[in-house]
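Bench notes, afternoon.
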Amino acid sequence: MRKTALALGRAFLNLVYPITCYICGEKLAENKGLCDRCLSKIETNAFGIAACRYEGVIKEALRLFKYKNAFSLINTFSRLFAEFIDRNIDMRKIDLIIPVPLHPVKLRERGFNQARLLAQPIARRYNVPISISNLIKVKYTKPQSGLNRNQRLRNLRNAFSVKKAGPLKGKKILLIDDVYTTGTTVNKASYALKRAGALEVKTLTLARGI
């Protein structure tokens, strides 16, 4: 009886407040963020470390996710990650998943760490432990966009640190972030993990700039 009532309630809400695609506005049967037509426009598996190209639909979807709290898009992002991982990464050889952290000030401003939200479904799907507090960002940095290569390197110098090296020693780690532009952020984070004793650090991002 209760399940029936809940189903009727959801049906009523969908009638009054229909679920729509974040990009084109088409009505959706379920809250998955993007319709199949918009999803088909995303160029996937374009690079060795990213699930798709940072352009068009995926670029706008990430903007809505990060700045407009379009959290249902995580369903689409998880699907894109899974398709890429199943083709390219042997998750049986990954000991630990770590999302690239935000500085505490930035985390308070945004309210969430997008890399963590992207990493959690991957950890659940492949049954791999996730660490969300050991790798930390200790330096508040300017946005990387708009900076040249040398400025990016200076901006992120000594930006990441590890709280406890023990749990990382000898581990094969999958480092997760949302966008790969020049690689400075993930390279600096990877360096901190390797200095702490990680055996190997693979990087995986949802999108990579062209």
